[in-house]
Every structure is written in structure tokens, then in C-alpha cells.
Design brief:
With about 400 residues, the protein is of the alpha+beta class. The chain has three domains: about 80 residues, no CATH class; about 110 residues, Butyryl-CoA Dehydrogenase, subunit A, domain 2; about 150 residues, Butyryl-CoA Dehydrogenase, subunit A, domain 3 (Up-down Bundle). It contains ten helices and eight strands. A hairpin with a 2-residue loop joins strand 2 and strand 3. Helix 4 runs antiparallel to helix 5. Bound molecules: flavin-adenine dinucleotide.
Amino acid sequence: MSVKSESDEEFRTRFRAFLQESHPGRGPKDPPERIAWQRAWQATMFDRGFAGPSWPVEYGGMDLSFPKQVIYQEELTRARVPRALGTGQGIVAPTIIAYGTQDQRNRWLAPMLRGDKIWVQGYSEPGAGSDLPGLTTSARREGDEYIVNGQKIWTTQGPLADVIFALVRTGTRESRQEGITYLVIDAHAPGVQIRELRDITGGHAFGEIYFDDVRVPVADRIGEENGGWPLVRTSLGHERAAGAMNQAANYRRVLDEFIELLRDRGLDRDPLVRDRIAELETEVRIMRYNAIRVISDIVAKGEPGPASSVSRLLITGFEQRLHEFAVEALGPAGLVGRGSVHAVQRGRWLYGFLRTRASTIGAGTAEIQRNTVAEQVLRLPRDPGMPARV
Ligand SMILES: Cc1cc2nc3c(=O)[nH]c(=O)nc-3n(C[C@H](O)[C@H](O)[C@H](O)COP(=O)(O)OP(=O)(O)OC[C@H]3O[C@@H](n4cnc5c(N)ncnc54)[C@H](O)[C@@H]3O)c2cc1C
């Protein structure tokens, strides 16, 4: 039976059975072994036809209907399997599908989906975050190559990169968004240097990338020279939307686990705790409905639209409030980290508290998301401080 003709519940049963049979088990602790384990799982999903729920079938995806995409995310979260490595699948892939050439789609999409190549996002620079049109990493054309020089920062999973999808300046310094080009750069090319950045949790989730006379074929440019900015809009909208459904499904599970923990520790009888739980429960349900709204916009219009900013604000605010409350409710035990025998659930709530400090910064800060909602959803007057509509 094809995925198109089976009912939603039949699809759920078939996908759940696959996840149970093929589950990769608990991941190894050693970081390189863990990455190999994650990559192997991604390849299994691809080889068995369970990768890329929204991607066209010709590039290895599943082209699922909207309700099946929701089921897919719910089952994936329920099974606790590793997520895809890199940030390419949710961000640059929709951009390649929409604006790439046929040759680029054939070369890049399937290896990205299978996890053979890890793609990372090189947009932000030390002087260009919210003000992305101010970026200065330059690409000078020389025959059928560009010569790239400059620096990117805060690259999620940068140290694992095989490929960098980057924004570079091909126009004059003053050209702002009119002089930006979208390039796909081989992370192993001569002149590319990637350094780890340590974050507040003690991990190395980020990298910074230096380009020193890096040669990039013109054939690896997406869209036109100086025509990168409209593509950024597509990819940032998808970045905000990509997390929406799986985060909503994930936080449904996390909140249930937290309530269970409060029950075990006898804290659920406290009326103040119950009040806070009721608030979080309301938020987690709103998040789910909003995520459905974002995905249905993508299905109907091909673009997530500004509703993805509403979704991002809801999710990031929620995850911060949940972890702040968890650490507070657990008292001193909530402040003991992984590695100590006194840590509650291996320190996951403290880790979450620290990790989610960054949530309201990544993929555009909460202030920028509020500006987007104010201008594009509520149609309020434009903030003169905002660089351009993203
Ligand atoms: C978890 C995480 C993952 C990330 N992953 C990546 C990645 O993979 N690739 C990548 O390229 N980048 C990544 N980033 C970088 C991220 O996109 C930038 O940090 C973000 O855009 C903010 O830029 P900035 O750090 O330069 O801060 P700034 O832009 O300097 O902002 C500083 C402060 O000023 C405020 N501000 C700035 N402009 C305005 C305005 N017009 N109105 C109101 N307030 C304003 C901001 O809200 C913020 O509070 C990541 C960041 C985080 C935290």
C-alpha cells in the first residue's frame, strides 16, 4: 500500500512499528561515537523511506499530507530517537527546492537528508546578527569561482560541518541587502577554519568559521548574484517553522514527565505548584495549535509567513518558563548538575535551564520576532530601528 492511499491511523501504526523494530537504543556517551550513532540512524530512516516528511519523493522525501506530518512528528518524539544532525534540512533544503537548479537539487538534497553530509548555517557575524544586512564576509568573482574572505559566528554544530550555507557580500559595502549572495561552501575546502565555542552548559554546540581565500565554484551559488536576500526570508521563515511541530510534540512529553516528577516528590499537592502547572498546560496546548497553523500555512501557501514568528515566541518563552519553574520547584536539588549522585534525573532540568537562556536569541531574538509580529501580523507602524523585513 502506498503512503498516499493508507489512512492516517494506518500510517501511524506502520511508522510506530518501524520505530520500535529499528530503534537504535541508547546512544553512546563518547562524542565521536555518538555522532556516528546519530548519522547511522539518519541513514536507516532514509534507506527505509522514513526521512523528509515534507520533502518531494524524488529527493528521498515522503511528501506526506499535513495530518500525516503531524503524526510523524508526534511518533518521532514518542519514540525518543535521535534527531537529524546539522541545520540544513529545515532551513536551506526548502530554499534549494524553491530556488536551486535541478543540478543542485540532485547533488545536494539526498546526501543531506541521509546524513552523509552535515550542513550548517553561516549567516551571523560578530558585527551582523539582528542587523544581518550589515554582513561583511566578502566573495569576489574570479572566472567561474568566488574567493571568500571573512568570519561567521554562533554556527550551530559548526564543528561537525561538511557544508556551510552562507550569506556573503558581493556588492559594495553600502549595498546592504541588495549586495548579498547565497553560497554553498565546502567546509573541508582549503582556507576554511572552524573553531569550537564553549557555551554556558559547558558543551560545544557552536562554532566560529574563518574563510581565508576560499575558492567556491559559481555553480554552488543559489539564485542570482546579489539576489540572496529574498532567499534569506524563505530560509529564516522555515527555520522558525521547522522547530514548531516537533518542539510542540516534544514539550507535550517533557511537561508530562515534569508533572510525573512533581508527583513522585509530593509537590503536586501544593496549590501554587498546581497553578503554575495549569499555566504551562495551557501554553503547551496553544503551542500545538499554533504549530498546526504554521504547517498549514506552508502546505497552503508554500511559505510559513509571519505566524512562524508567533510560534517561535511562544515556544522559546515556554521552554524558559518551564525550566525556570522546574529548577525553582526542585529547590537545592534542582541546582545539582550531571555527574553528581545528588542530581535529579541526571541534571536534565538544570541543563535545560542553562540551555534555554539562548532560546530567545537564536533564529532572531525575541525583540526582532516581536517587531515582525507587530509590523506584519498586527500592521503596526514600522520600527525605524529594524534593518529590513525578514
Ligand atoms: C542557540 C543559538 C543558535 C544559533 N545558531 C546560529 C547558526 O546556526 N547560524 C548563524 O548564522 N547564527 C546562529 N545564531 C546567531 C543568532 O542568529 C544571533 O545571535 C542573533 O541573530 C542575534 O544577533 P547578535 O547575537 O549579533 O545580537 P545583536 O543583534 O547585537 O542584538 C543584541 C541585543 O539588541 C537587540 N536588538 C538588536 N536590534 C534590535 C532592534 N531593531 N529592535 C529591538 N531590539 C534590537 C537584540 O534583540 C538583542 O537583545 C545562533 C544563536 C543562538 C543563541
